[in-house]
Fold:
Amino acid sequence: MLRHTVVNVLLILLAIGAGLIWSLRDQSEYADILDHGGLSATARVYPTKSTKRISDVVAALANDDTVDDLQVQFGVNKTTSYIYEKGSVQKLPLDSGQFFSAADYNSTIPVAVVGRTAAENLYVGSNQKYLQVNGQYLSVIGVTGSDASPRLNNHIFINASAQGTTYNPELKHVEVLADTDDWTTVNSTLKRIMGAHSYKHLANAKTQVNSTRDKHLGAFFTYLILLAIGLVIVAAINVWLTPAIKVAGVDRPLRNHYIFSMAGSYLPGAIIAIAIGTGIAWWRLYITNHVRLVGSAIVMLAIFIVANQLLMFWQLRRKERSREIT
Structure:
C-alpha cells in the first residue's frame, strides 16, 4: 500500500510538471501572437505589385462567400496596420473600449484601436480621445495591451474599409498579411484578389517583429527530457519497492507472463494518478491546447509502463545471473 502511495504521489507531481511545461509553451505562443497583432504562426505574407487599393480588396473579400474566419492586415510600418476581419478570428486583449465591428469595415469614417503605450500620446477632446494620422484626427474606440507584449502596446490599428478612407494606398505600397484556419479554401482566393503569385511565411514579414515563440525551444525540450527521466526514476522506485519476484525454476513463457501480469498491480493507480495531475494542470494552469496536454499524459503513462517492464526484466535477469555464478 505504501509503495503504491509513494509512486502515485510522484506521478501526480510529474503530471502537474508536464502541465507546467505546456503552460509555459502556450504562454510563449500567445505572447508571439500578440507581438504580431493577433496573427498566428501560420499567417502568410502576400507580396504584390498590384495597383488595387485597400478598399478594393476589402470589398472583394466581403462579397466572397467562400472566404470566412479571416484576418487581413495591411502593414504600413512596424507600428501601424490597417486591419480587416471576417468571421471568427483571434481577438486581442482590450484594456478599454471595443475592437472594430463589421460596420467599421464598411464605413467612410476611419477609427483606431491603439496599444496602451501609444494611448499615452493621444489628443483628448470632450469625452473622446483622438489619434493624429497623416494630418487627420481619428477617433480612438479602444485600447489594447498586454504585459506579455511591448510591441502590441505600441501598435496602432486602423479599420480597413470597403468604402475607403482618407488613406487608401495601393497594395504595392503596403505589406499584405493574412491569417485563417482554412488555407485550403482561402489561399487561391487571396492570391487572386491580391494579385499575388505566391506567398511567404510570417517570419519573412518586413513590418513584423522577429518571432519569439522558439526563443526558449532548447529549454522546452530540456524540460521534456527531464520529465522522461523523472518517469524512469519513478518506475525504478516502483520496481525497487516491489516484493522480490519468486519465479526460480519457472520456464521462460510462464515467467514472462507473470512479469507482465505484475503491471496489473500498479497500472490502475498510475492511470488515476496521472489523470489527477493532468486534471489539476488543466484546471489551475494557463493551457490553451488541451489536446496536447492529454496526449502528453498518455505518452507519460506509456513511458512509465515500458520503463517498469524493462526494469523488472533487467532485475530478474540480474538475479538469475547471480544465481548462476554462485
Observations:
- Residues 290-325 form the longest helix (36 residues).
- The longest strand covers residues 136-144.
- Residues 112 and 246 are 76 Å apart (CA to CA).
